[in-house]
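User: Need the bound-state model for 1-O-phosphono-beta-D-fructofuranose:
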Amino acid sequence: MTSKSEDKIRKSGQSIETLVKLKDEDWSTTPEFIYGGPFITKGTTSPFMNTATPINLQLQGTFKKSFAYYSLKDRLPVIITKIIDSLSRGGAKGKGSDEDVRNYIQYLTELKSDLITNKQYKLLTVDTPEAKRWNQWIEDSPNQYYFTNTWVFTECYVYRRIREGCELNKGLINFDPFEEQKAKSFSNSLEPMCVVAEKVITMLDPSEKDKRKADFIMLLKICLWSNKCDLSLSMGEEVTLKNEGVPKSPSKDLVDPIQMIIDLKDKILVDDSSKIVDQVVSRSEAILKIMDEPAAPTENPEDNPTPEGEEPPKPKSCPAKVTKPLNLMFDIVCDNAGYELFSDLCLAHFLISQKIANKIRFHVKSIPWFVSDVTPKDFDFVINSCVNGCFEKVVKVEPKPAASEGQPPEEEAPRVINADALKLLGQTWANFVADGTFVVLCDDFWTSPHTFKDMKKIQPYLYRDLQFAVAVLFKGDLNYRKLLGERNCNPSLGFEPALQGFLPAPVIALRTVKADLICGLPKGKWEQLNKIDPKWMEKGDYGVIQFCGKCEPLKVFDRPCALYGDTCRGIKCF
Ligand SMILES: O=P(O)(O)OC[C@@]1(O)O[C@H](CO)[C@@H](O)[C@@H]1O
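Assistant: Bound-state model below.
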Protein backbone atom coordinates (compact mmCIF):
# COMPACT_ATOMS: atom_id res chain seq x y z
CA MET A 1 0.00 0.00 0.00
CA THR A 2 1.30 3.45 -0.86
CA SER A 3 1.89 6.05 1.78
CA LYS A 4 -0.72 8.16 -0.01
CA SER A 5 -3.43 5.62 0.63
CA GLU A 6 -2.25 5.21 4.22
CA ASP A 7 -2.68 8.94 4.59
CA LYS A 8 -6.14 8.74 3.16
CA ILE A 9 -7.15 6.11 5.71
CA ARG A 10 -5.57 8.04 8.53
CA LYS A 11 -7.40 11.22 7.64
CA SER A 12 -10.76 9.62 7.01
CA GLY A 13 -10.68 7.74 10.34
CA GLN A 14 -12.84 5.11 8.60
CA SER A 15 -12.48 1.40 8.88
CA ILE A 16 -10.16 -0.23 6.43
CA GLU A 17 -12.91 -2.41 4.98
CA THR A 18 -14.76 0.61 3.65
CA LEU A 19 -11.66 1.59 1.72
CA VAL A 20 -10.23 -1.73 0.69
CA LYS A 21 -12.99 -3.96 -0.58
CA LEU A 22 -12.64 -7.71 -0.61
CA LYS A 23 -13.72 -8.37 -4.19
CA ASP A 24 -13.38 -12.11 -4.10
CA GLU A 25 -15.37 -13.62 -1.26
CA ASP A 26 -13.37 -16.84 -1.45
CA TRP A 27 -10.00 -15.14 -1.52
CA SER A 28 -9.09 -16.59 1.84
CA THR A 29 -9.26 -20.14 0.56
CA THR A 30 -6.94 -19.63 -2.40
CA PRO A 31 -3.69 -21.64 -2.35
CA GLU A 32 -1.72 -18.40 -2.06
CA PHE A 33 -3.30 -17.81 1.33
CA ILE A 34 -3.20 -21.32 2.66
CA TYR A 35 0.23 -22.36 1.50
CA GLY A 36 2.36 -19.28 1.70
CA GLY A 37 0.60 -17.26 4.29
CA PRO A 38 -1.65 -14.42 3.26
CA PHE A 39 0.33 -12.90 0.38
CA ILE A 40 -1.07 -10.35 -1.98
CA THR A 41 -2.03 -12.17 -5.15
CA LYS A 42 -1.90 -10.82 -8.65
CA GLY A 43 -5.24 -9.77 -10.05
CA THR A 44 -7.07 -9.98 -6.72
CA THR A 45 -7.62 -7.13 -4.36
CA SER A 46 -6.20 -8.39 -1.12
CA PRO A 47 -7.12 -6.87 2.21
CA PHE A 48 -3.60 -7.55 3.50
CA MET A 49 -1.13 -4.70 3.65
CA ASN A 50 2.53 -4.70 4.33
CA THR A 51 2.30 -2.04 7.02
CA ALA A 52 1.94 -1.66 10.76
CA THR A 53 -1.49 -0.56 11.97
CA PRO A 54 -2.04 2.99 10.69
CA ILE A 55 -2.71 5.62 13.33
CA ASN A 56 -6.35 5.89 14.44
CA LEU A 57 -7.40 2.60 12.92
CA GLN A 58 -8.39 -0.41 14.98
CA LEU A 59 -5.93 -3.29 15.28
CA GLN A 60 -6.64 -6.10 12.84
CA GLY A 61 -4.93 -9.05 11.23
CA THR A 62 -4.70 -7.45 7.82
CA PHE A 63 -1.73 -5.27 8.78
CA LYS A 64 1.13 -7.65 8.23
CA LYS A 65 3.64 -5.72 10.31
CA SER A 66 1.34 -5.64 13.32
CA PHE A 67 1.28 -7.86 16.39
CA ALA A 68 -2.34 -8.68 15.53
CA TYR A 69 -1.28 -10.36 12.28
CA TYR A 70 1.50 -12.34 13.97
CA SER A 71 -0.80 -13.32 16.84
CA LEU A 72 -3.57 -14.62 14.58
CA LYS A 73 -1.18 -16.33 12.22
CA ASP A 74 1.15 -17.90 14.78
CA ARG A 75 0.33 -17.39 18.45
CA LEU A 76 -3.34 -18.31 18.57
CA PRO A 77 -2.94 -21.44 16.39
CA VAL A 78 -0.14 -22.60 18.72
CA ILE A 79 -2.42 -22.12 21.72
CA ILE A 80 -5.11 -24.28 20.06
CA THR A 81 -2.53 -26.90 19.05
CA LYS A 82 -1.34 -27.12 22.63
CA ILE A 83 -4.85 -27.87 23.85
CA ILE A 84 -5.16 -30.59 21.21
CA ASP A 85 -1.77 -32.06 22.21
CA SER A 86 -2.67 -32.06 25.84
CA LEU A 87 -6.04 -33.74 25.15
CA SER A 88 -4.26 -36.37 23.06
CA ARG A 89 -1.95 -37.07 25.99
CA GLY A 90 -4.93 -37.65 28.29
CA GLY A 91 -5.24 -34.09 29.59
CA ALA A 92 -9.00 -34.44 30.12
CA LYS A 93 -8.81 -37.85 31.77
CA GLY A 94 -11.56 -38.38 34.25
CA LYS A 95 -13.44 -35.34 32.93
CA GLY A 96 -15.09 -36.53 29.73
CA SER A 97 -15.63 -39.82 27.90
CA ASP A 98 -13.24 -40.87 25.11
CA GLU A 99 -15.89 -39.84 22.64
CA ASP A 100 -16.25 -36.39 24.22
CA VAL A 101 -12.50 -35.92 23.96
CA ARG A 102 -12.39 -37.12 20.35
CA ASN A 103 -15.20 -34.75 19.42
CA TYR A 104 -13.47 -31.86 21.15
CA ILE A 105 -10.19 -32.56 19.37
CA GLN A 106 -12.00 -32.61 16.05
CA TYR A 107 -13.84 -29.39 16.90
CA LEU A 108 -10.57 -27.64 17.81
CA THR A 109 -8.82 -28.92 14.70
CA GLU A 110 -11.54 -27.40 12.51
CA LEU A 111 -11.44 -24.17 14.47
CA LYS A 112 -7.69 -23.89 13.97
CA SER A 113 -8.01 -24.62 10.28
CA ASP A 114 -10.73 -21.96 9.90
CA LEU A 115 -8.53 -19.46 11.69
CA ILE A 116 -5.38 -20.00 9.69
CA THR A 117 -7.24 -19.99 6.38
CA ASN A 118 -9.17 -16.84 7.29
CA LYS A 119 -12.62 -18.37 6.89
CA GLN A 120 -15.83 -16.64 7.75
CA TYR A 121 -16.89 -17.04 11.40
CA LYS A 122 -19.41 -19.78 12.11
CA LEU A 123 -22.30 -19.03 14.42
CA LEU A 124 -22.33 -20.68 17.83
CA THR A 125 -24.59 -23.70 17.98
CA VAL A 126 -25.17 -24.07 21.73
CA ASP A 127 -28.62 -22.95 22.72
CA THR A 128 -28.17 -20.43 25.52
CA PRO A 129 -29.21 -16.76 25.78
CA GLU A 130 -25.56 -15.77 25.97
CA ALA A 131 -24.69 -17.74 22.79
CA LYS A 132 -27.65 -16.11 21.05
CA ARG A 133 -26.31 -12.70 21.99
CA TRP A 134 -22.91 -13.70 20.60
CA ASN A 135 -24.52 -14.76 17.34
CA GLN A 136 -26.26 -11.43 17.12
CA TRP A 137 -22.94 -9.63 17.57
CA ILE A 138 -21.40 -11.77 14.84
CA GLU A 139 -24.27 -11.06 12.49
CA ASP A 140 -24.18 -7.34 13.28
CA SER A 141 -20.45 -7.21 12.69
CA PRO A 142 -19.54 -5.47 9.43
CA ASN A 143 -16.78 -8.00 8.91
CA GLN A 144 -17.00 -11.66 9.80
CA TYR A 145 -13.59 -13.02 8.76
CA TYR A 146 -10.83 -13.93 11.20
CA PHE A 147 -8.16 -11.61 9.81
CA THR A 148 -10.31 -8.78 8.54
CA ASN A 149 -12.41 -8.13 11.63
CA THR A 150 -10.80 -6.32 14.54
CA TRP A 151 -8.17 -8.33 16.35
CA VAL A 152 -10.04 -8.15 19.65
CA PHE A 153 -13.27 -9.44 18.09
CA THR A 154 -11.53 -12.41 16.48
CA GLU A 155 -9.51 -13.30 19.56
CA CYS A 156 -12.56 -13.18 21.82
CA TYR A 157 -14.50 -15.19 19.26
CA VAL A 158 -11.80 -17.89 19.20
CA TYR A 159 -11.77 -18.20 23.00
CA ARG A 160 -15.58 -18.32 22.99
CA ARG A 161 -15.38 -21.17 20.45
CA ILE A 162 -12.75 -22.99 22.53
CA ARG A 163 -15.34 -22.90 25.27
CA GLU A 164 -18.17 -23.98 22.99
CA GLY A 165 -16.27 -27.16 22.15
CA CYS A 166 -16.63 -28.12 25.82
CA GLU A 167 -20.25 -27.03 26.08
CA LEU A 168 -21.14 -29.30 23.16
CA ASN A 169 -19.70 -32.37 24.87
CA LYS A 170 -21.57 -33.21 28.04
CA GLY A 171 -18.66 -34.68 29.95
CA LEU A 172 -16.50 -31.63 29.29
CA ILE A 173 -19.01 -29.06 30.42
CA ASN A 174 -16.87 -28.05 33.43
CA PHE A 175 -13.54 -28.69 31.73
CA ASP A 176 -11.01 -25.87 31.66
CA PRO A 177 -8.34 -26.63 29.04
CA PHE A 178 -5.91 -24.24 30.75
CA GLU A 179 -6.41 -25.36 34.35
CA GLU A 180 -3.23 -27.38 34.64
CA GLN A 181 -1.06 -24.56 33.29
CA LYS A 182 -2.65 -22.10 35.72
CA ALA A 183 -2.09 -24.41 38.70
CA LYS A 184 1.54 -24.98 37.71
CA SER A 185 2.15 -21.30 37.29
CA PHE A 186 0.78 -20.71 40.81
CA SER A 187 3.07 -23.21 42.47
CA ASN A 188 6.06 -21.90 40.54
CA SER A 189 5.39 -18.45 41.97
CA LEU A 190 5.32 -19.36 45.65
CA GLU A 191 8.66 -17.72 46.31
CA PRO A 192 7.74 -14.17 45.21
CA MET A 193 4.34 -14.62 46.87
CA CYS A 194 5.94 -15.40 50.22
CA VAL A 195 8.27 -12.40 49.86
CA VAL A 196 5.38 -10.06 49.06
CA ALA A 197 3.14 -11.55 51.77
CA GLU A 198 5.77 -10.79 54.43
CA LYS A 199 5.86 -7.19 53.27
CA VAL A 200 2.08 -6.83 53.04
CA ILE A 201 1.66 -7.95 56.65
CA THR A 202 3.58 -4.79 57.65
CA MET A 203 1.12 -2.60 55.72
CA LEU A 204 -2.12 -3.62 57.38
CA ASP A 205 -2.16 -1.75 60.69
CA PRO A 206 -3.65 1.74 60.58
CA SER A 207 -0.81 3.92 59.39
CA GLU A 208 -0.05 7.61 59.11
CA LYS A 209 -0.61 9.40 55.81
CA ASP A 210 2.89 9.21 54.31
CA LYS A 211 3.45 5.55 55.06
CA ARG A 212 -0.02 4.71 53.80
CA LYS A 213 0.71 6.54 50.56
CA ALA A 214 4.10 4.87 50.09
CA ASP A 215 2.56 1.43 50.76
CA PHE A 216 -0.32 2.07 48.37
CA ILE A 217 2.13 3.09 45.64
CA MET A 218 4.29 0.04 46.28
CA LEU A 219 1.27 -2.25 45.95
CA LEU A 220 0.22 -0.58 42.70
CA LYS A 221 3.67 -1.31 41.31
CA ILE A 222 3.67 -4.90 42.57
CA CYS A 223 0.30 -5.28 40.81
CA LEU A 224 1.67 -3.72 37.64
CA TRP A 225 4.66 -6.03 37.29
CA SER A 226 2.60 -9.07 38.24
CA ASN A 227 0.99 -8.59 34.82
CA LYS A 228 4.16 -10.01 33.30
CA CYS A 229 2.88 -13.43 34.40
CA ASP A 230 0.58 -14.01 31.45
CA LEU A 231 0.34 -17.43 29.88
CA SER A 232 -1.27 -16.25 26.66
CA LEU A 233 1.70 -14.10 25.62
CA SER A 234 4.01 -17.02 26.29
CA MET A 235 1.61 -19.35 24.45
CA GLY A 236 1.19 -21.44 27.56
CA GLU A 237 4.88 -21.74 28.44
CA GLU A 238 5.69 -21.27 32.09
CA VAL A 239 6.07 -17.63 33.10
CA THR A 240 7.05 -16.61 36.57
CA LEU A 241 8.85 -13.55 37.75
CA LYS A 242 11.88 -15.85 38.01
CA ASN A 243 12.46 -15.94 34.29
CA GLU A 244 12.04 -12.18 34.08
CA GLY A 245 15.36 -11.73 35.88
CA VAL A 246 15.96 -9.27 38.66
CA PRO A 247 19.24 -7.67 37.62
CA LYS A 248 20.55 -5.74 40.59
CA SER A 249 18.99 -7.66 43.43
CA PRO A 250 21.28 -7.64 46.49
CA SER A 251 20.47 -11.26 47.13
CA LYS A 252 20.62 -12.82 43.72
CA ASP A 253 19.09 -16.10 44.81
CA LEU A 254 15.77 -14.51 45.61
CA VAL A 255 12.88 -13.66 43.29
CA ASP A 256 12.02 -10.41 45.00
CA PRO A 257 9.16 -8.31 43.54
CA ILE A 258 9.97 -5.47 45.96
CA GLN A 259 13.48 -5.19 44.53
CA MET A 260 11.98 -5.48 41.07
CA ILE A 261 10.11 -2.19 41.63
CA ILE A 262 13.44 -0.44 42.09
CA ASP A 263 15.18 -2.24 39.24
CA LEU A 264 12.40 -1.57 36.75
CA LYS A 265 11.81 2.06 37.74
CA ASP A 266 12.75 3.36 34.29
CA LYS A 267 10.49 0.89 32.51
CA ILE A 268 7.33 2.60 33.77
CA LEU A 269 6.51 4.90 30.89
CA VAL A 270 3.63 6.74 32.56
CA ASP A 271 3.41 6.74 36.33
CA ASP A 272 0.23 8.28 37.76
CA SER A 273 0.54 6.35 41.02
CA SER A 274 0.90 9.37 43.30
CA LYS A 275 -2.15 11.03 41.69
CA ILE A 276 -4.09 7.76 42.02
CA VAL A 277 -3.44 7.51 45.75
CA ASP A 278 -4.38 11.15 46.43
CA GLN A 279 -7.55 11.08 44.35
CA VAL A 280 -8.76 7.65 45.41
CA VAL A 281 -8.31 8.51 49.08
CA SER A 282 -10.13 11.82 48.76
CA ARG A 283 -12.97 10.31 46.73
CA SER A 284 -13.30 7.56 49.32
CA GLU A 285 -13.57 10.19 52.08
CA ALA A 286 -16.13 12.17 50.06
CA ILE A 287 -18.26 9.07 49.43
CA LEU A 288 -18.11 8.15 53.10
CA LYS A 289 -19.53 11.58 53.97
CA ILE A 290 -22.40 11.15 51.50
CA MET A 291 -23.12 7.69 52.88
CA ASP A 292 -23.44 9.13 56.37
CA GLU A 293 -26.07 11.67 55.32
CA PRO A 294 -29.57 10.60 56.36
CA ALA A 295 -31.54 9.03 53.51
CA ALA A 296 -34.38 11.11 52.13
CA PRO A 297 -37.67 9.18 52.39
CA THR A 298 -38.70 8.06 48.94
CA GLU A 299 -42.26 7.07 49.62
CA ASN A 300 -45.39 8.94 50.48
CA PRO A 301 -46.79 7.28 53.67
CA GLU A 302 -50.29 8.28 52.65
CA ASP A 303 -50.11 6.02 49.62
CA ASN A 304 -49.38 3.03 51.82
CA PRO A 305 -50.91 3.54 55.23
CA THR A 306 -49.40 1.27 57.85
CA PRO A 307 -52.02 -1.01 59.37
CA GLU A 308 -52.72 -0.09 62.98
CA GLY A 309 -50.36 -1.64 65.52
CA GLU A 310 -47.69 -2.41 62.91
CA GLU A 311 -44.31 -0.73 62.60
CA PRO A 312 -44.11 1.45 59.47
CA PRO A 313 -41.82 -0.24 56.90
CA LYS A 314 -38.31 1.11 56.55
CA PRO A 315 -38.10 3.17 53.36
CA LYS A 316 -36.33 1.14 50.71
CA SER A 317 -35.30 2.75 47.50
CA CYS A 318 -35.68 1.26 44.10
CA PRO A 319 -32.04 0.65 43.11
CA ALA A 320 -32.70 2.52 39.92
CA LYS A 321 -33.36 5.66 41.91
CA VAL A 322 -30.40 5.33 44.19
CA THR A 323 -27.92 8.04 43.40
CA LYS A 324 -25.54 7.62 46.26
CA PRO A 325 -23.30 4.67 47.00
CA LEU A 326 -24.36 2.46 49.91
CA ASN A 327 -20.87 1.03 50.30
CA LEU A 328 -17.30 2.16 49.85
CA MET A 329 -16.62 -0.12 46.92
CA PHE A 330 -13.42 -0.53 44.97
CA ASP A 331 -13.59 -2.62 41.81
CA ILE A 332 -10.84 -4.70 40.24
CA VAL A 333 -11.36 -5.94 36.71
CA CYS A 334 -9.00 -8.88 36.97
CA ASP A 335 -6.66 -10.29 34.39
CA ASN A 336 -4.50 -13.33 35.09
CA ALA A 337 -4.81 -15.93 37.85
CA GLY A 338 -1.81 -17.16 39.85
CA TYR A 339 0.71 -14.58 41.00
CA GLU A 340 -1.14 -11.71 39.34
CA LEU A 341 -4.38 -12.44 41.20
CA PHE A 342 -2.40 -12.91 44.41
CA SER A 343 -1.02 -9.38 44.01
CA ASP A 344 -4.53 -7.99 43.35
CA LEU A 345 -5.74 -9.64 46.55
CA CYS A 346 -2.89 -7.98 48.46
CA LEU A 347 -3.93 -4.56 47.16
CA ALA A 348 -7.57 -5.30 47.98
CA HIS A 349 -6.63 -6.35 51.52
CA PHE A 350 -4.64 -3.16 52.00
CA LEU A 351 -7.57 -0.99 50.85
CA ILE A 352 -9.88 -2.72 53.33
CA SER A 353 -7.45 -2.55 56.23
CA GLN A 354 -6.73 1.14 55.61
CA LYS A 355 -10.51 1.78 55.32
CA ILE A 356 -10.16 3.24 51.85
CA ALA A 357 -12.86 0.75 50.86
CA ASN A 358 -15.17 -1.58 52.77
CA LYS A 359 -15.99 -3.88 49.88
CA ILE A 360 -13.92 -5.07 46.92
CA ARG A 361 -15.66 -6.37 43.83
CA PHE A 362 -13.47 -8.65 41.71
CA HIS A 363 -14.69 -8.92 38.13
CA VAL A 364 -13.53 -12.19 36.62
CA LYS A 365 -14.31 -14.24 33.50
CA SER A 366 -17.19 -16.70 33.48
CA ILE A 367 -15.30 -19.04 31.11
CA PRO A 368 -11.64 -19.97 30.47
CA TRP A 369 -10.18 -16.97 28.68
CA PHE A 370 -6.88 -15.92 27.10
CA VAL A 371 -5.25 -18.95 28.75
CA SER A 372 -4.58 -17.56 32.21
CA ASP A 373 -7.45 -15.16 32.96
CA VAL A 374 -9.16 -15.62 36.32
CA THR A 375 -12.40 -17.61 36.50
CA PRO A 376 -14.42 -18.01 39.74
CA LYS A 377 -12.83 -21.44 40.17
CA ASP A 378 -9.32 -19.96 39.83
CA PHE A 379 -10.24 -17.33 42.39
CA ASP A 380 -11.10 -20.00 44.97
CA PHE A 381 -8.08 -22.04 43.94
CA VAL A 382 -5.66 -19.16 44.53
CA ILE A 383 -7.11 -18.35 47.96
CA ASN A 384 -7.19 -21.99 49.06
CA SER A 385 -3.66 -22.55 47.82
CA CYS A 386 -2.47 -19.55 49.82
CA VAL A 387 -4.18 -20.94 52.92
CA ASN A 388 -2.37 -24.24 52.38
CA GLY A 389 0.86 -22.69 51.07
CA CYS A 390 4.02 -24.63 51.79
CA PHE A 391 7.41 -23.06 51.17
CA GLU A 392 10.74 -22.50 52.85
CA LYS A 393 14.01 -21.13 51.56
CA VAL A 394 17.12 -19.87 53.28
CA VAL A 395 18.75 -17.07 51.35
CA LYS A 396 22.26 -15.86 51.81
CA VAL A 397 22.30 -12.10 52.29
CA GLU A 398 25.13 -10.10 50.76
CA PRO A 399 27.41 -8.71 53.51
CA LYS A 400 27.01 -5.01 54.29
CA PRO A 401 30.03 -2.85 53.28
CA ALA A 402 32.55 -2.39 56.07
CA ALA A 403 31.69 0.33 58.60
CA SER A 404 35.17 1.83 58.28
CA GLU A 405 38.22 1.33 56.10
CA GLY A 406 40.35 -1.69 56.84
CA GLN A 407 37.46 -3.47 58.58
CA PRO A 408 35.98 -6.64 57.07
CA PRO A 409 32.49 -6.33 55.53
CA GLU A 410 29.70 -7.02 58.06
CA GLU A 411 28.31 -10.53 57.71
CA GLU A 412 24.52 -10.70 57.55
CA ALA A 413 22.43 -13.52 58.97
CA PRO A 414 20.75 -15.56 56.22
CA ARG A 415 17.15 -14.66 55.47
CA VAL A 416 14.50 -17.32 55.89
CA ILE A 417 11.52 -17.02 53.61
CA ASN A 418 8.51 -19.16 54.44
CA ALA A 419 4.78 -19.33 53.86
CA ASP A 420 3.58 -18.20 57.31
CA ALA A 421 2.53 -14.73 56.14
CA LEU A 422 1.04 -16.13 52.96
CA LYS A 423 -1.16 -18.53 54.93
CA LEU A 424 -2.29 -15.76 57.24
CA LEU A 425 -3.28 -13.56 54.30
CA GLY A 426 -5.01 -16.49 52.58
CA GLN A 427 -7.08 -17.21 55.69
CA THR A 428 -8.15 -13.57 55.99
CA TRP A 429 -9.13 -13.54 52.30
CA ALA A 430 -11.21 -16.68 52.78
CA ASN A 431 -12.99 -14.90 55.64
CA PHE A 432 -13.47 -11.79 53.49
CA VAL A 433 -15.12 -13.93 50.82
CA ALA A 434 -17.33 -15.59 53.43
CA ASP A 435 -18.50 -12.30 54.97
CA GLY A 436 -19.00 -10.49 51.65
CA THR A 437 -16.09 -8.04 51.96
CA PHE A 438 -14.66 -9.64 48.81
CA VAL A 439 -17.23 -10.27 46.11
CA VAL A 440 -16.56 -12.21 42.90
CA LEU A 441 -18.64 -11.22 39.89
CA CYS A 442 -18.48 -12.50 36.34
CA ASP A 443 -20.62 -10.50 33.97
CA ASP A 444 -20.72 -11.90 30.43
CA PHE A 445 -19.67 -8.53 29.10
CA TRP A 446 -16.07 -9.29 30.09
CA THR A 447 -16.05 -12.24 27.69
CA SER A 448 -17.80 -10.38 24.91
CA PRO A 449 -15.91 -8.94 21.92
CA HIS A 450 -16.94 -5.39 22.82
CA THR A 451 -14.65 -2.61 23.83
CA PHE A 452 -15.45 -0.55 26.88
CA LYS A 453 -16.67 2.59 25.13
CA ASP A 454 -19.71 0.48 24.16
CA MET A 455 -20.40 -0.92 27.63
CA LYS A 456 -23.08 1.64 28.39
CA LYS A 457 -25.00 0.66 25.28
CA ILE A 458 -24.40 -3.11 25.39
CA GLN A 459 -24.49 -3.75 29.12
CA PRO A 460 -25.95 -0.66 30.83
CA TYR A 461 -26.48 -2.43 34.15
CA LEU A 462 -22.80 -3.24 34.46
CA TYR A 463 -21.87 0.33 33.59
CA ARG A 464 -24.20 1.60 36.29
CA ASP A 465 -22.82 -0.88 38.81
CA LEU A 466 -19.32 0.43 38.18
CA GLN A 467 -20.56 3.98 38.74
CA PHE A 468 -20.94 3.22 42.46
CA ALA A 469 -17.24 2.49 42.85
CA VAL A 470 -14.61 4.66 44.51
CA ALA A 471 -12.51 3.68 41.48
CA VAL A 472 -12.25 0.85 38.98
CA LEU A 473 -8.87 -0.76 38.44
CA PHE A 474 -8.36 -2.44 35.06
CA LYS A 475 -5.58 -5.01 34.99
CA GLY A 476 -3.56 -6.08 32.03
CA ASP A 477 -3.14 -5.73 28.35
CA LEU A 478 -6.44 -7.03 27.01
CA ASN A 479 -8.39 -4.72 29.33
CA TYR A 480 -6.15 -1.89 28.17
CA ARG A 481 -6.86 -2.65 24.53
CA LYS A 482 -10.57 -2.61 25.35
CA LEU A 483 -10.23 0.65 27.28
CA LEU A 484 -8.70 2.25 24.19
CA GLY A 485 -11.37 0.77 21.92
CA GLU A 486 -8.63 -1.39 20.29
CA ARG A 487 -7.66 1.78 18.43
CA ASN A 488 -4.09 2.59 17.52
CA CYS A 489 -4.41 6.17 18.75
CA ASN A 490 -1.59 8.65 18.62
CA PRO A 491 0.77 7.45 21.40
CA SER A 492 0.82 10.91 22.95
CA LEU A 493 -2.97 11.23 23.13
CA GLY A 494 -4.07 11.70 26.76
CA PHE A 495 -5.61 8.78 28.67
CA GLU A 496 -8.97 10.53 29.07
CA PRO A 497 -9.63 11.19 25.35
CA ALA A 498 -8.29 7.72 24.57
CA LEU A 499 -11.12 6.27 26.71
CA GLN A 500 -13.64 7.72 24.23
CA GLY A 501 -16.31 8.52 26.81
CA PHE A 502 -15.94 5.46 29.02
CA LEU A 503 -16.11 7.29 32.34
CA PRO A 504 -18.21 5.23 34.80
CA ALA A 505 -15.94 6.02 37.80
CA PRO A 506 -12.30 7.03 38.14
CA VAL A 507 -10.40 4.58 35.95
CA ILE A 508 -7.00 3.14 36.82
CA ALA A 509 -5.05 1.06 34.29
CA LEU A 510 -2.09 -1.13 35.29
CA ARG A 511 -0.68 -2.77 32.20
CA THR A 512 2.57 -4.19 30.97
CA VAL A 513 2.81 -3.41 27.27
CA LYS A 514 2.05 -6.55 25.22
CA ALA A 515 0.27 -5.15 22.20
CA ASP A 516 1.07 -2.37 19.77
CA LEU A 517 -1.13 0.41 21.03
CA ILE A 518 -0.57 2.93 23.79
CA CYS A 519 -1.56 6.42 24.91
CA GLY A 520 -0.31 9.10 27.24
CA LEU A 521 3.38 8.97 26.28
CA PRO A 522 5.46 12.13 26.33
CA LYS A 523 6.00 13.41 22.78
CA GLY A 524 8.90 11.65 21.07
CA LYS A 525 9.08 8.75 23.56
CA TRP A 526 7.37 6.22 21.29
CA GLU A 527 9.73 7.02 18.40
CA GLN A 528 12.73 6.79 20.73
CA LEU A 529 11.69 3.36 22.05
CA ASN A 530 11.06 2.10 18.51
CA LYS A 531 14.60 3.00 17.58
CA ILE A 532 15.99 1.00 20.52
CA ASP A 533 13.81 -2.06 19.86
CA PRO A 534 11.09 -2.18 17.19
CA LYS A 535 9.40 -5.01 19.11
CA TRP A 536 9.32 -3.31 22.50
CA MET A 537 5.49 -3.30 22.58
CA GLU A 538 5.18 -7.08 22.31
CA LYS A 539 7.25 -8.28 25.24
CA GLY A 540 5.76 -6.97 28.47
CA ASP A 541 9.05 -5.31 29.46
CA TYR A 542 7.52 -1.86 29.84
CA GLY A 543 4.56 -0.78 31.91
CA VAL A 544 2.09 2.05 32.43
CA ILE A 545 0.15 3.19 35.48
CA GLN A 546 -2.55 5.50 34.15
CA PHE A 547 -5.43 7.34 35.73
CA CYS A 548 -8.49 9.26 34.63
CA GLY A 549 -10.26 10.94 37.54
CA LYS A 550 -13.09 12.37 35.49
CA CYS A 551 -16.35 10.46 35.75
CA GLU A 552 -20.01 10.68 34.92
CA PRO A 553 -22.21 11.67 37.86
CA LEU A 554 -24.51 8.97 39.17
CA LYS A 555 -28.05 9.81 38.07
CA VAL A 556 -31.43 8.14 38.40
CA PHE A 557 -31.28 5.15 36.11
CA ASP A 558 -33.58 5.10 33.12
CA ARG A 559 -34.26 1.36 33.33
CA PRO A 560 -36.01 0.86 36.61
CA CYS A 561 -37.97 -2.33 36.62
CA ALA A 562 -36.55 -4.85 34.19
CA LEU A 563 -33.74 -5.92 36.46
CA TYR A 564 -35.04 -4.93 39.84
CA GLY A 565 -38.44 -6.62 39.76
CA ASP A 566 -38.15 -7.77 43.39
CA THR A 567 -37.59 -4.40 44.89
CA CYS A 568 -39.35 -2.14 42.43
CA ARG A 569 -43.09 -2.47 42.37
CA GLY A 570 -44.66 -0.79 39.40
CA ILE A 571 -43.79 2.84 39.06
CA LYS A 572 -43.42 3.45 42.77
CA CYS A 573 -40.18 2.90 44.59
CA PHE A 574 -40.25 1.65 48.12
O1 LIG B 1 -4.40 -9.21 29.17
P1 LIG B 1 -3.01 -9.73 29.40
O2 LIG B 1 -3.03 -11.05 30.10
O3 LIG B 1 -2.13 -8.73 30.05
O4 LIG B 1 -2.35 -9.96 27.98
C1 LIG B 1 -2.98 -10.66 27.01
C2 LIG B 1 -2.14 -10.86 25.82
O5 LIG B 1 -1.12 -11.77 26.07
O6 LIG B 1 -3.01 -11.34 24.91
C3 LIG B 1 -3.07 -10.51 23.78
C4 LIG B 1 -2.87 -11.28 22.59
O7 LIG B 1 -3.43 -12.50 22.63
C5 LIG B 1 -2.04 -9.46 23.89
O8 LIG B 1 -2.60 -8.23 23.74
C6 LIG B 1 -1.51 -9.60 25.26
O9 LIG B 1 -0.18 -9.74 25.11
